Amino acid sequence: MNSPFKTGSMGNREPFSAFICDESALDVLRPVVIEMGWQPEKCNKGGLRNAIQSLSIAASPAILMVDLSESGDPLNDINALAEVCEPGTVVIAVGQVNDVRLYRDLLASGIHDYLLKPLSAGQLRDALTQAQAVFASPRNADGDSDQEHVATAVVGTRGGVGASTLATSLAWLFASEHHRSTALLDLDVHFGTGALALDLEPGRGLTDAIENPSRIDGLFIERAMIRANDNLAIMSAEAPINSPLMTDGTAFLQLQEEFRQAFDMTVVDLPRNMLINFPHLLTDVNVVTLVTELTLASARDTIRILSWLKQNAPACHPLIVCNRMQSGSAEISKADFEASIERKINFQIPFDQKAAANAAKLGQTFIEANKGSKTVAPIREIAKMIVGVAEDDGASIEEAGQKGSMLGKFDLKSLLGSTPKKDKAPAEPAE
Question: Is the peptide bond before 244 cis (omega within 30 degrees of 0)?
Answer without folding.
Answer: no
